[in-house]
Design a protein that fits this description.
Layout: H1 3-8, H2 12-25, H3 31-41, H4 48-60, H5 65-88, E1 93-94, E2 97-98, H6 100-103, H7 106-125, H8 130-154, H9 161-185, H10 191-215, H11 220-223, H12 229-232, H13 238-245, H14 250-261, H15 266-278, H16 281-300, H17 307-321
Antiparallel strand pairs: 1-2
Helix pairs in contact: 2-5, 4-5, 4-9, 4-17, 5-7, 5-8, 5-9, 7-8, 8-9, 9-10, 10-16, 10-17, 13-15, 13-16, 14-15, 16-17
Amino acid sequence: MDRLSQIKSPIISDLEQFKELFNSSLDNSNPLLQEVLSHIKQRGGKMMRPILVLLIARLLGKVTLSTLHAAVSLELLHTASLVHDDVVDESSERRGQASVNAVYNNKISILVGDYLLATCLYQAAFSSNIEIIKVVSQLGQDLSEGELLQLSNVSNIEISETVYFDIIRKKTAALFSACTKTAALSSSIDAKEVENARLFGEYIGICFQIKDDIFDYYDDREVGKPTGNDMREGKLTLPAIYAINNSNHAEIKALAVKIKSGSASDSDIKEMIDYVKNNGGIEYATKVMMDYHAKALRLIESFPESEVKSSLTSYLDYVVDRTK
């Protein structure tokens, strides 16, 4: 049994219910819309976020219909954000499959993304829990704000770890914390437990993003994306931020500004990648990631030993150990 199968083992039947509900939410009588939605459904994916919703709900109580609708709502919002992101980033591929904008066009992509967002709120309403609806709505705001913050930061010559964490909390971490918070809210527990669940998701999301940022320093044969892809988009992530801010070399800081301006050549990017790897950037980012991993583990250590708790621990390990 592979690692993900082991993680999913306590929630197999819950996941089947989730898949049925998710797929039925993407059925539509409009031929063009149904064609695009079918294209999106073919992507598959590891279902990391729905798995987290269901495991947290099981840890805190049980999976209810409210839990399932929350999980579907969040996955629809995540899917909508990816469809829109591919337009913004002019991406032609997503998870090894042609993106919606590549197969159809930007106009159709935007409209289908909007449809997914509306369907997301429709599913949230079926949770019959106003607090869950608030979390989903807030997540939509956070994801948009995070993207805008990242875009505005590209032109900012300041290289700040604080801004980096502001961005990833609004983007990646916000999605994971919404998963764990809605799961807790569907279990009708007290406010302190809901906040601990939210923090657990936030810490996982931070680990997830830092790991993705580390991947950018290794070639695509290993991790499935081009080396230095973030830098080509003018983004300097945690490994680079650390190495640059701890450098006394004026030429490295000048190179960082050049990368952020979008005018760096391939040789410039290779120089920065080599500098970061040779000056502790990867080690620092890995340490920070593992610190958040430890903080997340502490939030569930008081729960009695169970198959669900073991799966959540394995989930955390999987996030930091994954190879792509």
